[in-house]
Amino acid sequence: MTPRIAVAAVTFDRPKELSVLLDSINAQSRQVDTICLVDSGTVPAAEVAAAHPNVDYVRSEANLGGAGGFALAALKAVASGARWIWLMDDDAEPADPECLATLLREAEARDLEAVVPLVTAPGHPDRLSFFFRLDGKVTHDRAEVEKLGFLANDGHFFNGALIRSDVFFKVGLPDMRLFIRGDEVDFTIRLRKAGIRFGTVTTTAITHPHAFSETQHVYGARWHVIVPDSAFKRYYYYRNRGYLIRRYVRVRSLVADVGGYAGYFLQRRDLPGFLGWARSFSLGLRGKGFAPLEDQKF
User: Cα separation of 114 and 265, whole Å?
Assistant: First the structure.
C-alpha cells in the first residue's frame, strides 16, 4: 500500500513565492495527499491557497513565527493520517520533480525516520544556502558535500525535511517559544537524543534564500559567528542560542559563543553590538525572554 504523504507548510506575506512552492509540490512525480498550509501573514493568502489543489488552509491571526507555524502545520499533517510529513517554508522550492520521490526512496532504502535534501541558493545551484562543517571548516560548496554521498545524523531542518509521522510522537513538535532562528537546532538535538535515524541525501535538493553574509569569521576559518542582518532576527538568534546552551548544557557552544562574539564585536569596536548580543544571549541563558518581542522589558 502506498503511504500517505502530507506537506506541512508555513507562509507569511509571500504570495508569489507561495504560489511557486504550491505549483512545484503539485508537479512532483510522487503526488502528495494533502498540503497543510498555516498562514500567519498580515495579508491572508487564502486566494493563493484556493487556486491550488489539495491545500488544507489554516489562517492564524497571531504571528506564530516559523516554530509555531511548523508546529501547527505538522500537527495538522499528522492528524490527516499521513505516514510521512514533508516540511516546507513558503520561499523554498524543490529543485526538480523527483525530489520527493528521491527522499522517500532513500528513506525506505536506508531505514530512516527522517531525511533531508541539500539546500541550494536560488540561481546558484553549486552553492549551499546553509553551510556544513567538514574537517573543522565550514563550506557552502555543493560539490564538496555531494562527494560524501549520504551524511548520517546531520542535516538542515526544516526546509524540505521528510519526517515519518511517528517521530513527532517521540520527540514532540517544534518549540513555538523559540519563534524563529533556533527552533530547527532544538529539533535536531531532540532527534539525536531520541536516537532517531536521519541524515542528508546529497542526490536531491531544494532551493531556499541564502544568508552568506551572516557568517562572520573571527579567528580564521575554524571559528565563526552568525550575525543576522536585522535587529529582530539578531534578538531571537542570540536569545535562542543562550537558551539552547542552558537547556542542553552545551559547554562547548558556550565557550564558542562567548569567545566568538566578544572577538567579533570588540575587534570592530562595536560596543552597542556587543551589548545587544550580551543582553539577548543572557536572557536565553537565564531562561527568560519568551514573551512576544514587543512586550519585552529588559
Answer: 38
Q: Span 157-185, mean pLDDT?
A: 96
Q: What is the pLDDT of residue 215?
A: 87
DSSP structure string for 74-120 = HHHHHHTT-SEEEEEETT-EESSTTHHHHHHHHHHHTT-SEEEEEEE
Instruction: State the chain's mean pLDDT as an integer.
Output: 94
Query: Rounded distance, CA 7 to CA 162, Å?
Result: 9
Residue 90 grid cell? 513558503
Q: Which of 29, 23, 30, 42 is nearest to 6 (CA)?
A: 30
CB atoms within 10 A of CB 253: 16
Tell me which of 180 and 213 has the higher pLDDT: 180
Task: For each of the domains in the chain, give its residue range(s) and CATH number, in order of start.
Answer: 5-207 (3.90.550.60), 215-295 (no CATH)
CA pair distance 125, 94, nearest whole angstrom: 12
279 backbone φψ class: left, alpha, beta (φ>0; ψ -120 to 50): alpha
Strands 5-11 and 84-89: parallel
Q: Which of 25, 205, 201 is nearest to 120 (CA)?
A: 205
Instruction: Report residue 138's pLDDT band, with 50, 70 and 90 as the boundaries.
Output: confident
Residues whose CB falls within 8 Å of the CB of residue 244, separated by 6 or more in sequence, listed in order = 182, 185, 186, 189, 250, 253, 284
Mean local confidence (pLDDT), 82-100: 97
What's the rounded Cα separation, in Å, for the pair 259 and 272? Answer: 17
